[in-house]
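User: I'll paste a sequence; please echo it back and then give the predicted structure.

Assistant: Echoing your sequence first, then the prediction.
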Amino acid sequence: MVNDWFDEDQLAVTKKRFEAFKELGIVTTVKSNYYEWHRALETGIPQLADLSVVTLGPRVKGEASDSERGLFLTDAIAEKAIKNATEAGVQAAKLILEISSVAKTYDKSDDPRASSITHYHDVITKFGADPDGDGTVFGPDGRLYYFYSRTRAIGKVRLARRFGLHGIAVDHLELQ
Protein backbone atom coordinates (compact mmCIF):
# COMPACT_ATOMS: atom_id res chain seq x y z
CA MET A 1 0.00 0.00 0.00
CA VAL A 2 1.53 3.31 -1.10
CA ASN A 3 -0.89 5.19 1.11
CA ASP A 4 -4.58 4.90 1.89
CA TRP A 5 -5.43 6.23 -1.60
CA PHE A 6 -3.53 3.80 -3.80
CA ASP A 7 -2.24 0.29 -3.57
CA GLU A 8 0.70 -0.67 -5.81
CA ASP A 9 -1.55 -2.03 -8.61
CA GLN A 10 -3.69 1.11 -8.75
CA LEU A 11 -0.60 3.28 -8.81
CA ALA A 12 0.97 1.24 -11.65
CA VAL A 13 -2.23 1.46 -13.72
CA THR A 14 -2.50 5.21 -13.16
CA LYS A 15 1.14 5.75 -14.13
CA LYS A 16 0.63 3.67 -17.31
CA ARG A 17 -2.38 5.81 -18.16
CA PHE A 18 -0.28 8.96 -17.82
CA GLU A 19 2.43 7.40 -20.02
CA ALA A 20 -0.19 6.60 -22.68
CA PHE A 21 -1.52 10.15 -22.58
CA LYS A 22 2.02 11.49 -22.96
CA GLU A 23 2.63 9.23 -25.99
CA LEU A 24 -0.54 10.64 -27.56
CA GLY A 25 0.67 14.19 -26.97
CA ILE A 26 -2.20 15.01 -24.62
CA VAL A 27 -1.73 17.53 -21.82
CA THR A 28 -2.28 15.85 -18.47
CA THR A 29 -3.54 17.47 -15.30
CA VAL A 30 -3.91 16.16 -11.77
CA LYS A 31 -5.84 17.86 -8.98
CA SER A 32 -6.01 17.50 -5.21
CA ASN A 33 -7.21 19.47 -2.19
CA TYR A 34 -4.55 21.32 -0.22
CA TYR A 35 -5.16 19.14 2.85
CA GLU A 36 -4.60 15.94 0.81
CA TRP A 37 -1.82 17.28 -1.40
CA HIS A 38 1.00 15.64 0.59
CA ARG A 39 -0.62 12.24 0.03
CA ALA A 40 -1.02 12.91 -3.69
CA LEU A 41 2.66 13.85 -3.91
CA GLU A 42 3.62 10.55 -2.23
CA THR A 43 2.16 8.69 -5.22
CA GLY A 44 4.43 10.49 -7.70
CA ILE A 45 1.46 11.21 -9.98
CA PRO A 46 1.57 15.03 -9.74
CA GLN A 47 5.23 14.90 -10.75
CA LEU A 48 4.24 13.05 -13.96
CA ALA A 49 1.49 15.49 -14.94
CA ASP A 50 1.99 18.44 -17.27
CA LEU A 51 -0.05 20.59 -14.89
CA SER A 52 -0.92 20.10 -11.24
CA VAL A 53 -3.81 21.84 -9.52
CA VAL A 54 -3.95 22.36 -5.78
CA THR A 55 -7.44 23.28 -4.63
CA LEU A 56 -7.68 25.82 -1.83
CA GLY A 57 -11.18 25.04 -0.64
CA PRO A 58 -12.89 24.11 2.60
CA ARG A 59 -13.16 20.60 3.93
CA VAL A 60 -16.66 19.68 2.86
CA LYS A 61 -16.73 16.18 4.32
CA GLY A 62 -16.39 15.60 8.01
CA GLU A 63 -15.52 18.03 10.72
CA ALA A 64 -12.78 20.60 10.93
CA SER A 65 -11.20 21.70 14.18
CA ASP A 66 -11.69 25.31 15.25
CA SER A 67 -8.14 26.11 14.13
CA GLU A 68 -8.78 24.61 10.66
CA ARG A 69 -12.06 26.32 9.85
CA GLY A 70 -10.90 29.26 7.76
CA LEU A 71 -7.43 27.90 7.07
CA PHE A 72 -8.13 27.32 3.38
CA LEU A 73 -8.40 31.10 2.90
CA THR A 74 -4.93 31.92 4.19
CA ASP A 75 -1.86 32.75 2.16
CA ALA A 76 0.14 30.61 4.60
CA ILE A 77 -1.73 27.46 3.54
CA ALA A 78 -1.34 28.32 -0.15
CA GLU A 79 2.37 28.97 0.34
CA LYS A 80 2.79 25.68 2.22
CA ALA A 81 1.04 23.77 -0.60
CA ILE A 82 3.28 25.44 -3.19
CA LYS A 83 6.43 24.63 -1.22
CA ASN A 84 5.35 21.01 -0.63
CA ALA A 85 4.71 20.55 -4.34
CA THR A 86 7.94 22.15 -5.54
CA GLU A 87 10.03 20.32 -2.93
CA ALA A 88 8.49 17.05 -4.17
CA GLY A 89 9.51 17.79 -7.76
CA VAL A 90 6.53 19.63 -9.26
CA GLN A 91 7.83 22.59 -11.25
CA ALA A 92 6.32 25.88 -10.09
CA ALA A 93 5.59 26.82 -13.71
CA LYS A 94 3.36 23.73 -13.93
CA LEU A 95 1.38 24.41 -10.77
CA ILE A 96 -2.06 26.04 -10.62
CA LEU A 97 -3.79 27.30 -7.48
CA GLU A 98 -7.54 26.78 -7.56
CA ILE A 99 -9.78 28.87 -5.34
CA SER A 100 -13.20 27.73 -4.28
CA SER A 101 -16.45 29.49 -5.08
CA VAL A 102 -18.06 27.65 -2.17
CA ALA A 103 -18.83 29.32 1.13
CA LYS A 104 -18.73 26.94 4.08
CA THR A 105 -19.87 27.06 7.69
CA TYR A 106 -18.78 24.57 10.29
CA ASP A 107 -21.30 25.78 12.85
CA LYS A 108 -24.13 23.39 13.66
CA SER A 109 -27.73 24.26 12.90
CA ASP A 110 -30.87 23.28 14.78
CA ASP A 111 -32.56 22.86 11.39
CA PRO A 112 -31.78 19.37 10.03
CA ARG A 113 -32.43 20.64 6.48
CA ALA A 114 -29.89 23.46 6.76
CA SER A 115 -26.92 23.14 4.46
CA SER A 116 -23.40 23.96 5.59
CA ILE A 117 -22.46 25.06 2.06
CA THR A 118 -23.57 27.95 -0.10
CA HIS A 119 -21.96 29.92 -2.91
CA TYR A 120 -20.03 33.16 -3.29
CA HIS A 121 -22.98 34.81 -5.03
CA ASP A 122 -25.25 33.99 -2.09
CA VAL A 123 -22.93 35.34 0.61
CA ILE A 124 -22.65 38.62 -1.29
CA THR A 125 -26.26 39.08 -2.43
CA LYS A 126 -28.21 37.33 0.34
CA PHE A 127 -25.93 37.51 3.39
CA GLY A 128 -24.58 41.02 2.72
CA ALA A 129 -20.90 40.04 2.80
CA ASP A 130 -18.32 42.61 1.78
CA PRO A 131 -16.77 41.35 -1.47
CA ASP A 132 -13.55 43.14 -0.49
CA GLY A 133 -13.64 41.96 3.13
CA ASP A 134 -11.77 39.23 4.98
CA GLY A 135 -13.80 36.31 3.61
CA THR A 136 -16.14 35.78 6.54
CA VAL A 137 -19.78 36.64 7.06
CA PHE A 138 -22.55 35.63 9.42
CA GLY A 139 -25.47 34.12 7.56
CA PRO A 140 -29.11 34.95 8.32
CA ASP A 141 -29.14 31.90 10.61
CA GLY A 142 -26.27 33.34 12.71
CA ARG A 143 -23.68 30.83 11.51
CA LEU A 144 -20.24 32.04 10.39
CA TYR A 145 -19.40 31.32 6.73
CA TYR A 146 -15.92 31.35 5.17
CA PHE A 147 -15.51 32.29 1.50
CA TYR A 148 -13.02 33.73 -0.98
CA SER A 149 -13.54 37.46 -1.03
CA ARG A 150 -11.84 39.42 -3.81
CA THR A 151 -9.21 40.45 -1.27
CA ARG A 152 -8.44 36.81 -0.45
CA ALA A 153 -8.45 35.82 -4.13
CA ILE A 154 -6.11 38.66 -5.11
CA GLY A 155 -3.73 37.47 -2.39
CA LYS A 156 -3.51 34.11 -4.16
CA VAL A 157 -2.83 35.83 -7.50
CA ARG A 158 0.07 37.67 -5.86
CA LEU A 159 1.41 34.38 -4.49
CA ALA A 160 1.10 32.73 -7.91
CA ARG A 161 3.12 35.55 -9.45
CA ARG A 162 5.70 35.54 -6.67
CA PHE A 163 6.32 31.81 -7.02
CA GLY A 164 6.12 31.79 -10.84
CA LEU A 165 3.09 29.48 -10.99
CA HIS A 166 1.26 28.56 -14.17
CA GLY A 167 -1.88 30.32 -12.99
CA ILE A 168 -5.03 30.52 -10.93
CA ALA A 169 -8.30 28.67 -11.44
CA VAL A 170 -11.81 28.97 -10.01
CA ASP A 171 -13.40 25.62 -9.20
CA HIS A 172 -16.64 26.20 -11.10
CA LEU A 173 -18.85 28.87 -12.54
CA GLU A 174 -22.03 29.67 -10.69
CA LEU A 175 -24.57 29.48 -13.47
CA GLN A 176 -28.12 29.56 -12.25
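Residues 8-101+150-170 form one domain. The two ends are 43 Å apart (CA to CA).
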